[in-house]
Amino acid sequence: MRILLQRSDGKEAAWIADFKDLLPDAEIVFWREGEAAAPCDYAVVWQPPAAMLPELGCVKAIFNTGAGVDALLKFGDALPAHVPLVRLDDAGMGVQMAEYVSHAVLRHFRRFDDYEAQGRAGIWQPLPAFDKMDFPVGVLGMGVLGTRVLQALAQFEFPLRGWSRSQKHIDGVACFAGEEGLDAFLRGTRLLVCMLPLTPDTHNLLDRARLSMLLPGAYVINVARGAHLAEPDLLTLIRSGHIAGATLDVFRNEPLPQQHPFWQEPRITITPHISAATLRRESVAQIAAKMRRLHAGEVVAGIVNRSQGY
Ligand code: NAP
Ligand code: GLV
Questions:
Q1: Which of 20, 8, 13 has its CA nearest to residue 66?
Q2: Cα–Cα 20 to 30 A to 60, which of 17, 83, 130, 261?
Q3: Atom 33 of ligand 1, residue of closest alpha carbon
Q4: For residue range 8-19, what is the model confidence (pLDDT) as tens digits?
């Protein structure tokens, strides 16, 4: 088996070593622009450049070393349609998302921002506690990661809501589906968590009209993609007081430019796209197992539905 590996983080040696560990008979070819690679069985990529597309047409499957495939599907028809695209299926990201979102939810709900401000001013003053029943948490996207986050939040007994394309039935979660379910979902949500894939249907989903539907004093957590959120609209609604603040891990332009107004807004917490990192060993283990299955003619989970965009 020959595997074409593309990375731009300088960590190719570690990826190659892990693949060699798990697939000792495989030859791993590191892709370099301008160098023709011998024909390969599988490609393993993350945000590949357009220059790699011709090579991707010759493999039996493309493995994406992340959950989101927007950076591949943006190539449209130039991405070979006959080659299955396989995304990461948790691979250690679920627990990271659960940690990140639980932290952000609890930090807001338990008023740590207020206590930090008081602490800096040397003020000892208990503040009125929020009532959980006034803080329904709504998760947009109840897939692999959204479901894991809902499970984590259930431990803290928040009222839970979720929105997905197809109707779900999850104990303890008010489930909404499709465009027709979105307004009702938003109108009953105070803490909003975005865990959707970025597709033509979800691009700019969180605009002024939809964010205005959230309960007053809402809080927004975006761990999906920056382009889900209309950034100026969020700022307007924070400044108007309708939205209390936000924790954002993803942005339209990454790294977030220094002159971006989010940096100056104390009610916005910024992290540099770290809510759920790709864990190399877990990812290589998952991909290697799927390569073995495909090689044996078996089916694998995590094949992207190109028409749905995720
Ligand atoms: P997933 O398993 O494919 O789940 C996607 C969920 O979104 C599903 O519940 C799906 O509904 C729902 N959905 C998709 N399009 C929709 C639409 N138009 N309307 C309503 N619901 C829709 O994906 P995942 O593994 O949970 O990952 C989700 C996203 O997280 C990724 O695509 C990526 O962008 C992001 N992510 C970010 C980081 C980070 O570090 N910031 C890390 C990993 C992933 P159905 O269940 O009905 O199909
Ligand atoms: C990271 O953003 C991913 O999609 O895995």
A1: 8
A2: 17
A3: 68
A4: 999 999 999 999
